[in-house]
């Protein structure tokens, strides 16, 4: 069972539909009690770092997500959900993230923002849910901020924005965050979710 | 590097596809869900649904349709038509839409863009502009091109992005339906005016028109309806040609 953390942010429908499609069972979780039956957790998210962290902290969800991660069970953060796994964000100065991965979130630079559309993701192959593939498959992005892990080894994959490579997957062991939307990335995205369901 | 996107657009009325023409391998060419799925399987990078009646009576049908679409579509899709408030947008996003398209309502009340971006983030907000003319003085029109406003296209695009539009869908009313190519100069002019992605629409009559668009402008995406509707050209065909011409696409 995959627990999808429900903190009122964004479109959970699409993620649920993708999990249904590949036959992974899931449930929305909004309290620590709901987590008992989950082997895995997904932290989704679209929206603002500040609003999301405020909700997660006030509801106590940030604490039990952290405890779940420390128990060694797999967690996947998606888009804003990935950024929340870090310690802070330029989007919300002074707001403390969940902090499972050392590092911060910075605003994208470059000609066109948001970074919107399909881009190739080059994995370094160090994490099983992100296969190292010479083809570097395309995934769908829609974001204006990007994760900057403190430890370069925590960067699992990069994408080329034309001017620079940015980190688009972060993590260590059981905690992984991806900046793109696997639930909206066609076959490549569904396979990533399948691998998460098995890891 | 971002891949250039190919976006088929479907006009919806009462929960059904309008302009239903024969479409190979579909039991029901008027069923938006079947057609959308065929487009996704045929290589579309994204889809756009436009509710052309946008009447209050049809709203529940549209919401139900969006719910059904989101169960089968694993690529992003935009829904537009009749969005006048945060609540209208919320209903569509909850049902599974990824982005909301606004046009006439934003011209009438530009703060709508600010409200939508404030609630959902600017990556959710697509401003659609129906442009009349292709020169520097090209004008914004509303109500599907029937009413010409005093605004120029570039000024409106700039203002809209400042307010919260995360993407501009630029439709050339002159080029629309003529199938003689995109309005290249106008597209490039709007790209110069804003820092958000610009989707070009109107005028695609062949796969080669997309090649011209992407080789001569920095457009992020090309949107078309009729060229894909009869099934003779698929998004995949277009992207194959683009790839041969050295344009970055997702294949």
CATH class of chain A: Alpha Beta
Biggest sheet of chain B, open or closed, and with what strands and sense? 8 strands, parallel, barrel
Q: Output mean pLDDT of chain B.
A: 92
CATH architecture of chain B: Alpha-Beta Barrel
Q: How many DSSP-defined strands of chain B?
A: 11
Q: Helix segment count of chain A?
A: 5
The CATH topology of chain B is given as TIM Barrel
**What is the terminal separation of chain A in angstroms?**
13 Å
The CATH fourth-level homologous superfamily of chain A: Class I glutamine amidotransferase (GATase) domain
Classify the helix fraction of chain A into a percent range. 10-25%
Low-confidence stretches of chain A: none
* Helix/strand structural class of chain B: alpha/beta
Which structural class do the helices and strands of chain A define? alpha/beta
Shape of chain A: globular
Q: How many domains would you count in the coordinates of chain B?
A: 1
Characteristics of this structure?
heterodimer, A: 199 residues, alpha/beta, Rossmann fold, eight-stranded mixed beta sheet, three-stranded mixed beta sheet, 24% helix, B: 251 residues, TIM Barrel, eight-stranded parallel β-barrel, 10 helices, 37% helix
Provide structural commentary.
The complex is a heterodimer of chains A (199) and B (251). The longest helix of chain A is centred in the last third of the chain and has 13 residues, at 186-198. The relative contact order of chain A is 0.17. Chain A is built from five helices and 13 strands. By secondary structure, chain A is an alpha/beta fold. Chain A has one domain (2-198): Rossmann fold, CATH 3.40.50.880. In chain A, strands 2-1-3-4-13-12-11-8 form an eight-stranded mixed sheet, sandwiched between helices. Chain A has a three-stranded mixed sheet with strand order 5-6-10, with no helix packed on it. An eight-stranded parallel beta barrel of chain B has the order 1-3-4-5-6-9-10-11, surrounded by seven helices. Chain B is built from ten helices and eleven strands. By secondary structure, chain B is of the alpha/beta class. In chain B, 37% of the residues lie in helices and 22% in strands. Chain B has a single domain (5-244), classed as TIM Barrel (Alpha-Beta Barrel), CATH 3.20.20.70. The radius of gyration of chain B is 17 Å and the shape is globular. In chain B, 53% of the residues are buried. The A-B interface holds A 10-11, 13-14, 17-18, 20-21, 46-48, 111-120, 138, 140, 142-144, 160-162, 181, 183-187, 189-190 and B 1-3, 5, 40, 45, 67, 70-71, 74-76, 93-98, 120-124, 166-167, 195-197, 220-221, 250.
């Amino acid at each position: 069972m995959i627990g999808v953390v429900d903190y009122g942010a964004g479109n959970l429908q699409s993620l649920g539909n993708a999990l249904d499609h590949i036959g992974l069972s899931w449930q929305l979780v909004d309290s620590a009690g709901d987590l008992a039956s989950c082997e895995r957790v997904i932290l989704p998210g679209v929206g603002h770092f500040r609003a999301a962290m405020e909700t997660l902290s006030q509801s106590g969800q940030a604490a039990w997500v952290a405890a779940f991660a420390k128990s060694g069970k797999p967690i996947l953060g998606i888009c804003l959900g990935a950024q929340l796994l870090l310690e802070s964000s330029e989007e919300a100065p002074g707001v403390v993230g969940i902090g499972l991965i050392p590092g911060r979130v910075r605003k994208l630079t470059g000609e066109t923002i948001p970074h919107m559309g399909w881009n190739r993701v080059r994995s370094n192959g160090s994490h099983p849910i992100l296969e190292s593939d010479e083809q570097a498959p395309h995934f769908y992005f829609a974001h204006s901020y990007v994760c900057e892990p403190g430890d370069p080894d925590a960067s699992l994959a990069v994408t080329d924005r034309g001017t620079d490579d940015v980190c688009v997957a972060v993590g260590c062991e059981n905690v992984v965050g991806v900046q793109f939307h696997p639930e909206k990335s066609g076959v490549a995205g569904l396979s990533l979710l399948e691998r998460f369901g098995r890891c | 590097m971002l891949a250039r996107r190919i976006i088929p657009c479907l006009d919806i009325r009462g929960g059904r596809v309008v302009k239903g023409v024969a479409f190979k391998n579909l039991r029901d060419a008027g069923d938006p869900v079947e057609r959308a799925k065929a487009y996704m399987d045929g290589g579309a990078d994204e889809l756009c649904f436009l509710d052309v009646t946008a009447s209050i009576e049809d709203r529940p049908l549209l919401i139900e349709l969006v719910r059904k679409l989101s169960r089968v579509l694993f690529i992003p899709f935009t829904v537009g038509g009749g969005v006048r408030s945060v609540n209208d947008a919320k209903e569509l996003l909850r049902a599974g839409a990824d982005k909301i398209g606004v046009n006439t309502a934003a011209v009438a009340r530009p703060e709508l863009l600010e409200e939508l971006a404030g609630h959902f983030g600017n990556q959710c907000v697509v401003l659609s502009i129906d442009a009349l003319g292709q020169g520097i003085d090209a004008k914004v029109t509303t109500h599907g091109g029937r009413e010409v406003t005093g605004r120029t296209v570039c000024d409106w695009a700039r203002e809209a992005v400042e307010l919260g539009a995360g993407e501009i869908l630029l439709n050339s009313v002159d080029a629309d339906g003529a199938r003689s190519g995109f309005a290249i100069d106008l597209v490039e002019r709007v790209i110069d005016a804003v820092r958000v992605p610009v989707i070009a629409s109107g005028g695609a009559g062949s796969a080669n028109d997309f090649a011209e668009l992407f080789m001569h402008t920095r457009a992020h995406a090309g949107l078309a309806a009729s060229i894909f509707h009869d099934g003779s050209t698929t998004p995949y065909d277009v992207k194959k040609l683009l790839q041969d011409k050295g344009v970055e696409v997702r294949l």
